[in-house]
Amino acid sequence: MSLRICEIFGPTIQGEGVLIGEPTVFVRTGGCDYRCSWCDSLHAVDSAYRHDWEVMTPTEVWDEIVHLSDHRPLTVSLSGGNPAIQNLAPVIEMGQAAGYRFACETQGSIPAAWFGRLDTLVLSPKPPSSGERVVWERFEDCLKAAGPHTQVVMKIVVFDEDDFAFARATAASYPDLPLYLQPGNREVDPATPVNLDVAAKRLEWLVQQTLAAKWFRPRVLPQLHVMIWGNKRGV
Amino acid sequence: MSLRICEIFGPTIQGEGVLIGEPTVFVRTGGCDYRCSWCDSLHAVDSAYRHDWEVMTPTEVWDEIVHLSDHRPLTVSLSGGNPAIQNLAPVIEMGQAAGYRFACETQGSIPAAWFGRLDTLVLSPKPPSSGERVVWERFEDCLKAAGPHTQVVMKIVVFDEDDFAFARATAASYPDLPLYLQPGNREVDPATPVNLDVAAKRLEWLVQQTLAAKWFRPRVLPQLHVMIWGNKRGV
């Protein structure tokens, strides 16, 4: 069995969501069933990049995680693209046996059988600005696949007021899922330096929207990695 | 019974530590047994400000929390100064009966009987750069006061390499406490705009220190409120 891997990098810190600040090795798989208008990882999504994706066995992926982390257990984030396309169960199994923890970031469009083995599953239903549409039956299937032992949280990116309305409606449908909101980032070119004042303003806007609505449930968080490293890859 | 209160403000988001991003009303009490060299809340610490502190009953404090949050339950952060100096039990009791959650931020120098009623206790032992010295017997007493039902986490501010060594040693003494590191901020004048590039560089430095040491236990987080609002008060 082989996996298509876009990149494996770290340790760095997780920049967003429930594990924000956590030392993490990222495994970014190649291939996605979505193509969001503002995708910040097109190199893992657009099949034009597929010749840059390495074909690796699960053992080769695991060996690289061990190498990068120098054999010291930490959190591994499976991201993409959509990692749910591929069978990452053997990587998770080898890692957990060695004390590593596994998180996965996915839009919730494809339920992988291995979601139930994860420590943390982050489901990110894509808001209207993405140009994609959530199929809620599949999202439900993802929740079922996670089962009772995996921590499941929801993360929603908010670019505008329509997205904010989507976040509110989605949150109402899933009252029991911990919820994380983050402002969208349209400046995704790795070569263009990020304007931190603009990034801070976007966060402030989302905080104000949330508090003005007297909506005290979600946590509102930035993308720390963008604040530290801009859109540079591999950090 | 009366409480000395420096300010009550919010809802805003918690800017740091385990509850980062969480909509929160802050109750900042007046008075402190420490005086850290880089204190960012001298208006709640220095007794020169004591005439600005309001004397309020617990009911008056609770009424203000309810007013600010418009009766909608959220997280209340008890901070200071050192909130452990005063008896906040009646406020916590009224709030929890109405579904509010309570967190407290303290250096861990004074064990308050009400720590065990909190949802979350954040203990921040002060590193060498503060000019203060931790009395570990008191810190232990704080852990005991928290008891088995309160989530206890440790947060350490790191200004320099000595502070980093302190964080590592302290972490080793308390292997079971979740640990949050944050870079120090010497620009605490409310009138001076914060330079976000400098703030991002401080965070990057601390991330690099932590990862270079192959130390994968702590989460490394910035002060979000400083990134959004600078050192402005009441946000």
Automatic annotation (TrEMBL), chains A, B:
<dbReference type="InterPro" id="IPR058240">
    <property type="entry name" value="rSAM_sf"/>
</dbReference>
<dbReference type="InterPro" id="IPR024924">
    <property type="entry name" value="7-CO-7-deazaguanine_synth-like"/>
</dbReference>
<comment type="similarity">
    <text>Belongs to the radical SAM superfamily. 7-carboxy-7-deazaguanine synthase family.</text>
</comment>
<feature type="domain" description="Radical SAM core">
    <location>
        <begin position="19"/>
        <end position="231"/>
    </location>
</feature>
<feature type="binding site">
    <location>
        <position position="41"/>
    </location>
    <ligand>
        <name>Mg(2+)</name>
    </ligand>
</feature>
<comment type="subunit">
    <text>Homodimer.</text>
</comment>
<feature type="binding site">
    <location>
        <position position="28"/>
    </location>
    <ligand>
        <name>substrate</name>
    </ligand>
</feature>
<feature type="binding site">
    <location>
        <position position="39"/>
    </location>
    <ligand>
        <name>[4Fe-4S] cluster</name>
    </ligand>
</feature>
<keyword id="KW-0949">S-adenosyl-L-methionine</keyword>
<feature type="binding site">
    <location>
        <position position="32"/>
    </location>
    <ligand>
        <name>[4Fe-4S] cluster</name>
    </ligand>
</feature>
<feature type="binding site">
    <location>
        <position position="81"/>
    </location>
    <ligand>
        <name>S-adenosyl-L-methionine</name>
    </ligand>
</feature>
<keyword id="KW-0411">Iron-sulfur</keyword>
<dbReference type="InterPro" id="IPR007197">
    <property type="entry name" value="rSAM"/>
</dbReference>
<dbReference type="Pfam" id="PF13353">
    <property type="entry name" value="Fer4_12"/>
</dbReference>
<keyword id="KW-0614">Plasmid</keyword>
<dbReference type="InterPro" id="IPR013785">
    <property type="entry name" value="Aldolase_TIM"/>
</dbReference>
<feature type="binding site">
    <location>
        <begin position="13"/>
        <end position="15"/>
    </location>
    <ligand>
        <name>substrate</name>
    </ligand>
</feature>
<comment type="function">
    <text>Catalyzes the complex heterocyclic radical-mediated conversion of 6-carboxy-5,6,7,8-tetrahydropterin (CPH4) to 7-carboxy-7-deazaguanine (CDG), a step common to the biosynthetic pathways of all 7-deazapurine-containing compounds.</text>
</comment>
<feature type="binding site">
    <location>
        <position position="79"/>
    </location>
    <ligand>
        <name>substrate</name>
    </ligand>
</feature>
<keyword id="KW-0479">Metal-binding</keyword>
<dbReference type="InterPro" id="IPR017742">
    <property type="entry name" value="Deazaguanine_synth"/>
</dbReference>
<feature type="binding site">
    <location>
        <begin position="38"/>
        <end position="40"/>
    </location>
    <ligand>
        <name>S-adenosyl-L-methionine</name>
    </ligand>
</feature>
<comment type="pathway">
    <text>Purine metabolism; 7-cyano-7-deazaguanine biosynthesis.</text>
</comment>
<keyword id="KW-0004">4Fe-4S</keyword>
<protein>
    <recommendedName>
        <fullName>7-carboxy-7-deazaguanine synthase</fullName>
        <ecNumber>4.3.99.3</ecNumber>
    </recommendedName>
</protein>
<keyword id="KW-0408">Iron</keyword>
<dbReference type="GO" id="GO:0016829">
    <property type="term" value="F:lyase activity"/>
</dbReference>
<feature type="binding site">
    <location>
        <position position="36"/>
    </location>
    <ligand>
        <name>[4Fe-4S] cluster</name>
    </ligand>
</feature>
<keyword id="KW-0456">Lyase</keyword>
<keyword id="KW-0460">Magnesium</keyword>
<keyword id="KW-0671">Queuosine biosynthesis</keyword>
<feature type="binding site">
    <location>
        <begin position="124"/>
        <end position="126"/>
    </location>
    <ligand>
        <name>S-adenosyl-L-methionine</name>
    </ligand>
</feature>
